[in-house]
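Study this chain:
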Amino acid sequence: MSGLNQFATYLFSSGDAFFVGAALIALGRATTWRFRRNPFAKGLRLVTVLGVIFCGLSMTPLPLWLYGLCLITPLVSLNVPFQAESQSGCRRIVRRAQPLVEFLWVTTVATELIDRHRLYAPPLVTLPAEAHVIGDSLSAGIANEQEHLWPSLLASEWHVPVKNHAQAGATTASAFRQAEEIECDDCLVLIEIGGNDLLSGRDAQQIEADLNRLLTRLSPSKADRTLIMFELPVPPLPSGYEFARLQRRLAHRHAVRLIPRREFAKVLLAPGATTDGLHLSRSGHRTAADWVLQKLTHGRRQWMTTNPGTNADKLIERGTKNSYDQVTTSIRPQPTVCLAH
């Protein structure tokens, strides 16, 4: 994949095209009004049109009515800067309403940024007693290399048990059986599911029903269970918008935090990260593990597991390298990984 194609794929699958499109719309409208008396100014309308295309293809999971309104209003008002100011009636109203278009776009961009901030997973305060992974072949792998899968790498870095329930070919419906295997309360559950549903063209309502059932099963009856779901990159198709929308909607309903799709897209599009464009290679699993570590713990060596009754806290407070090495060497247990077959 060439550099330009890779950048375009990332831009649209990650959803960042929405913000690029919003900037292009703002630029197009500002320059059209500023140079409206210039004979070449009408060509600047193409910048606005390009921005609308970018926003439309970004599959940003905004409410459909708001999404449509944001895309239609810049197009309807393309010719307003070139209309005579003395015109009356409907055109005069449209001309005077132009500041509302800018207000609408500022509100929409702010809405998306706030929604991202509310849902996206913050770093963990403490490491969980154990962690579980629900997923498909991106987590289960497609070869017999269990020790190189990102959940196994995560366990070796965190030094906590990480049980990988993922199965190749799993969907939101079949993943319910994986959820039934989780019985702990004080644990972290990482959910990477939905790619096979999206690629197979399943009905969005059925996907939402299955994912809702899965999250209901996983939703903690006690406050100690933490659910974090990977927001999947989606193609610029109506099915992609529907999937992105239902993921956000269910995340709100079940108080599930999300790891942003823009971050997941970086992993999938990293050089050598996949074997066929979809399934992770060995280096891709390493990249995915590093990515999860960075997002949830701000790096590999931030965390230390301390046993009650030790002087580990005092050693940590000294802040010296020797103290750090002494703690990590003496009190960290050996990595424990439980993998589902």
Observations:
- The chain has two domains: 3-119, 131-322.
- The chain has a mean pLDDT of 82.
